[in-house]
Amino acid sequence: MQTDPLFLHIRVVMGIILGLSITTVLKGLAQIIEHPQRRGCSALHLGWVAWTLISLVTFWWWEFRLIEVHRWTFETYLFVIVYCATWFLLCALLFPDDLREYGSYGNYLMQRRRWIFSVIAALTLIDLIDTGIKGSSRWKLLGTAYPLHAVLMLAVAVLGGWLRSRRAQLRLVLATLAYQIGYFVVEYFTVGSD
């Protein structure tokens, strides 16, 4: 497989942004471990952090498929960078620098949920375009499970922004986390030739 030198360059930029995203999540988790009382450890928050980390790692894994793009334009490059930056935005939103006005991560998540779930919805929509960039054969290969996944994730984003009960939010994150793990295990374990 011949690798386009331009893709290698783009992959480096993607790696920097996604590396910062993962670093943000891991640093946030380390701060919770170091000072659980100061940061207000929350199962709800940790559930969405786990979902984000799993989704981010699998996104980075699956972006290897961009090697199949034979014609890169600045617009395509910019799109991929914006996609990666949107992941970073989600990670930064999950771990704000200052929690004083919220008291805890759980309170913060509930009060800022519309922003957080709007970013998750944006990531879902951007992923549809990203799949299109990889070619029509990619859509065919993914089958009906992929558009169904997108619809389910958009429904999760709408519910997440709408639900006011912590208990309902916790059920949503647990169901979404279980679904996401199952979906990725079934659909995305192998990147090799199809």
The SS-based structural class is: mainly alpha
Number of strands: 0
Binned strand content: under 5%
SSE order, as H and E? Answer: HHHHHHHHH
How far is the N terminus from the C terminus? 14 Å
Shape: globular
Number of helices: 9
Give a description of the structure.
By secondary structure, this protein is an all-alpha fold. The protein has helices at residues 5-34, 36-39, 43-62, 74-94, 105-111, 113-133, 136-142, 145-162, 166-187. Helix 1 (5-34) packs antiparallel against helix 3. 22% of the residues are buried. The mean pLDDT is 88.
Secondary-structure blueprint of this entry?
Layout lengths: L4 H30 L1 H4 L3 H20 L11 H21 L10 H7 L1 H21 L2 H7 L2 H18 L3 H22 L7
Helix pairs in contact: 1-3, 1-4, 3-4, 3-9, 4-6, 6-8, 8-9
Which properties best describe this structure?
194 residues, mainly alpha, 0% strand, globular
